[in-house]
Design a protein that fits this description.
By secondary structure, this protein is an all-alpha fold. It has five helices and no strands. Helix 1 packs across helix 5, helix 2 packs across helix 3 and helix 2 packs across helix 4.
Length: about 80
């Protein structure tokens, strides 16, 4: 299964929106720049593991749960 930056972005955006968080709030909680989060959500930047770990923690989930959701998104759209 090939990696897909856009699937990562769609998943993060969907989870953030579902929790009613703005990009400003999630990026602040995760300790990353809002522009970095925007580029991740748009699929323009590949998120490193540390960024995904921080995002997952701030979305109240384990990084492995986030990875599983990303994998499912890739499977649906791959």
């Amino acid at each position: 299964m090939p990696f897909d930056n856009r699937a990562v972005g769609r998943t993060v955006r969907r989870l953030r929106s579902k929790r009613g968080l703005s990009q400003d709030v999630l990026s602040g909680f995760a300790g990353i720049a809002r522009t970095h989060l925007t580029m991740i959500e748009n699929g323009d930047k590949q998120a490193n593991f540390e960024a995904l770990w921080k995002i997952a923690n701030r979305l109240d989930m384990r990084p492995s749960e986030l990875a599983a959701l990303i994998e499912a998104e890739i499977g649906r759209n791959g």
